[in-house]
Design a protein that fits this description.
Helices cover about 40% and strands about 20% of the residues. It is α/β, with parallel strands linked by helices. Helix 7 crosses helix 8 and helix 10 packs antiparallel against helix 11. About 35% of the residues are buried. It binds adenosine monophosphate (AMP). Adenosine monophosphate binds next to helix 2 and strand 5.
């Protein structure tokens, strides 16, 4: 099937109706564009899951209501033409890329709130972020009615919150978590990497190194406090970095961990100049 791109909800629903009638697998991969190898891996997994009869839907939407910082929204990288090429090469059937005015009614007054998993990490440092994420995903799930949706573990807290949302709201979709795709030097692919200078790109590898060190220390029984201090010191030794958070949390509840219990997660958000990068590692 030749890939089709839609900018309105009506077009999208029109194309999907026959697949719903036929009970075809419909696999959704939500993105904010500026697509890279991490997104590509999700889309390829979606293609495999969909099989021959199923359809892969990629949404490309820089969701304004999940940005708590206007300048982050304004400077968010956008590469629309390249995105379509990547989608086509990955075997996507339908791309949905609506304008904000198409997505949201002007007098919108309902949103989805999560008030436990989102109290830590990115939820604590980006007020309103996860409400914006859950709200747009509730809309996308209703519009696409996918059988399955795939999310990256790069945004681990987001994945945990989405799993909880579909459980608590009985949304009939299977959620899949995909492994983090990294550059050879260990830096996780991120759309925001495009905003780093070549020097910052080299420096940013320190997040991965600090996470790996934290994992080793945690596993060999070093206390949580020391593990975090050592990792933070490694990152702070690089000039121009600022740690937003560096935490060890329970991998399911996202709450800070006291002892060396598993499953745990080391997660960090670090500024390089004004670019904020996140990464994590499962323990
Ligand atoms: P975004 O466009 O940043 O909102 O990301 C869209 C989806 O791609 C989310 O589910 C992310 O977790 C996932 N993703 C982003 N970067 C990576 C990566 N390096 N590896 C795996 N998945 C990723």
């Amino acid at each position: 099937m030749r890939m089709q791109t839609f900018s309105t909800k009506a077009q999208l629903k029109g194309a999907l109706s026959k697949h719903h009638r036929q009970n075809d697998p419909v696999i959704l991969v939500p993105t904010m564009g500026a697509l890279h190898s991490g997104h590509r891996s999700l889309l390829e997994q979606a293609r495999k899951l969909a099989g021959e009869d199923g359809v892969v839907v990629a949404s490309i939407f820089v969701n304004p209501i999940q940005f708590n910082n206007t300048s982050d929204l304004q400077t968010y990288p956008r590469t629309p033409e390249k995105d379509l090429e990547l989608c086509e090469a990955a075997g996507v059937d339908y791309v949905f890329s609506p304008a904000p005015e198409e997505m949201y009614a002007g007098e919108r007054s309902i949103s989805v709130e999560e008030d436990f998993l989102s109290t830590t990490l990115c939820g604590a440092s980006r007020p309103g972020h996860f409400s914006g994420v859950c709200t747009v995903l509730a809309k996308l799930f209703n519009l696409v009615q996918p059988t399955d949706a795939i999310f990256g573990k790069k945004d681990y807290q987001q994945l945990a919150i989405i799993r909880r949302m579909v459980r608590d709201l009985d949304i009939p979709v299977r959620i899949h978590g995909a492994e983090i795709v990294r550059h050879e030097n260990g830096l996780a692919y991120s759309s925001r990497n495009a905003r780093l200078s070549p020097e910052q790109k080299e420096q940013a590898v320190v997040i991965r190194k600090a996470m790996l060190q934290a994992r080793d220390e945690f596993r060999s029984g070093t206390g949580v406090r020391e593990v975090k201090d050592h990792a933070a010191a490694m990152i702070e030794a690089v000039p121009g970095t600022r740690i937003d958070y560096l935490e060890i949390v329970d991998a399911e509840t996202m709450q800070p961990l006291e002892g060396n219990r598993e499953p745990a997660l080391v997660a960090a958000a670090v500024y390089f100049g004004d670019v904020r990068l996140i990464d994590n590692i499962e323990l």
